[in-house]
Amino acid sequence: MADKENTKRIFFSNEELDNLAVYLVGNSQRYRENIIIPRVAGPVKIKTTEEKMVESAFESCVFKSLMSCVVGYGLGAAIGLFSASVNPSVTGPTEKVQSAREVFKEMKTTTLSYAKNFALIGAVFAGVECAIESHRGKTDWRNGTYAGAVTGGVIGLRAGIKAGVIGAAGFAAFSTIIDYYMHR
Predict the structure, then answer these.
(1) Is 127 exposed, middle or buried (CB count within 10 Å of its CB: 0-12, 13-18, 19+)?
(2) How many angstroms separate the CA atoms of 34 and 10, rounded?
(3) Beta-carbon contacts of residue 144 (< 8 Å; ≥ 6 apart)
């Protein structure tokens, strides 16, 4: 009889099994307040979904490239305006004196030319650097060097193969020096 009592099977109801699972596993819902994040440099703020979406949009290659294009356009316009203002357009003493309208038209042409060139360089460089960085999965000086080589080569190819190679080497060296200077 004692053996029969020991081999008797015990069955739980569904409610008892659910209570046992909750007791052993814990609550199935996780709350943010339960997350423990070590504080290293000040208070920790957990980002909302909207903040993460905005951050990912700002860190995308398209946004970086567009911002570099806009900033390059502005910087190029400023440099072009300065260049046009200090560059005399009179070539000799027999030339007629330019009117204000002609001077402003020439300044506009020079300013827009510089602005478009700087915008193109900024957009191409930022886009290529971001694509290389995303592909490599690293952020180091090589990304800027490779992007400089591609950008210089593409821009130099408009004048031929030799100019493309020289442009790639020059722009890569310049990018490397700037990266070294900025990160030191």
Answers:
(1) buried
(2) 36
(3) 129, 175, 176, 178, 179
Which candidate, 101, 147, 95, places its Cα nearest to that of 125?
147
Q: What is the DSSP letter of 45?
A: -
Task: List CB contacts of 92: < 8 A, sequence separation 6 or more.
Answer: none
pTM for the full predicted model: 0.69
Report how far Cα 48 is from the mean position of its chain's Cα atoms. Answer: 21
For the chain, how big is the Rg over CA atoms in Å? 32
Predicted confidence pLDDT, tens digits, the chain (184 residues): 555 655 666 778 888 888 888 777 776 665 556 666 677 777 777 788 899 999 999 999 999 999 999 999 999 999 999 998 887 666 667 777 777 888 888 899 999 999 999 999 999 999 999 999 999 988 888 999 999 999 999 999 999 999 999 999 999 999 999 999 988 7
CA 147, CA 131: separation in Å to the nearest integer? Answer: 9
Q: How far apart are CA 81 and CA 104, in angstroms?
A: 10
